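input
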Amino acid sequence: MDIIANYGTTLVLVAALFGFLMAWGIGANDVANAMGTSVGTKSLTIRQAIIIAMIFEFAGAYLAGGEVTATIRSGIIDSNAFADTPDLLVLGMIASLLAAGLWLILASYFGWPVSTTHSIIGAIVGFAVVSVGPEAVQWSKFGGIVGSWVVTPAISGIIAYFMFISVQKLIFNTDNPLDNAKRYVPFYMFLTALVICLVTIKKGLTHVGLHLSNGEGVLLSVVLSIAVAFAGWLYIRGQKYNPKDDSKMHFANVEKVFGILMIITACAMAFAHGSNDVANAIGPLSAVASIVAAGGEIGGNSHIAWWILPLGGIGIVIGLATMGEKVMATVGTGITHLTPSRGFAAQLATAATVVIASGTGLPISTTQTLVGAVMGVGLARGIAALNLGVLRNIVVSWVITLPAGAILAIAIFYVLQACFS
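output
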């Protein structure tokens, strides 16, 4: 308690610095792999991906993430265990932010798409075990985390597989693929918009003053999705398609139509990510700020201070712009060859899986969801279409993320204790 009383402002400033670093890592790794399919299929440039990420990450975090962030991320540790020693919780959260941020930046340097959720969870568990003891950790949650390594990619992979099969049946394997693309792509736009509208209205709009019943929410989602599909239909009809392009690359004009759809799904992907994973950076930082503001009292929830979300947003954008290219390359071109139609199937499956699972309490990984979806699209063309060497490296990086976060957090926690004691 003396540490909080004597160094409160310093602790918040240090937490803000490390929270910014964590947000940088999220941008470099998580947002980069979320945008990887769009950039890999050349539907978006890196600059366009950054602009979309800026807008829709913020929207997802604010609307679908809610106005309150849980003090202890995902309920992995019991906050009551720190009731008598809030200074340990503050130092531990600061250590977790730095540990997870360093691991994400290291992984981004090597082009590994790892889980920011599991990075911060591993870090929090590490400091909790050495500061209070193993009893501070809710170990039953770990079964869900390990299970998600298999379940999450499997769900998104299955959705992506059948989504791409439907594209092949309805469009590519027909006599007039371009005409059918113009006919069916607005339907896929409707489906994408519907997923995003439903989760936004269900999870997010109560705290901005809009209270809707389930029926009203579904009706509004359908109306907005029809409007998006109609706008897409008008845009597709207005585009010029040159038959000579198809002689250079088979189905070039069809892929051009799907390139438009990729922009919609990129927005959906950024929104879904913002709703689910941005709290990995702002959650621990918000916890530190609220505990210090309360003089060491640990509450059940912490309201996000006005400056925290902009700090996280700036860090994410800078991380994506400065270090996102390698992870984008791994996801966009390393696992399998992606075209706009394949990238669309992977992105829509990922967005659907993330927004559906965000209400279940499972610490789902956007990274693992997307990689599973890209694998599903690749498998639709046969296992030979997958780069198994790249997939092996990705899976290994997933497995070592939890212990890497824990070990780094333990080391940093001891250093912080020595500095502030």
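quick obs: Residues 2-40 form the longest helix (39 residues).
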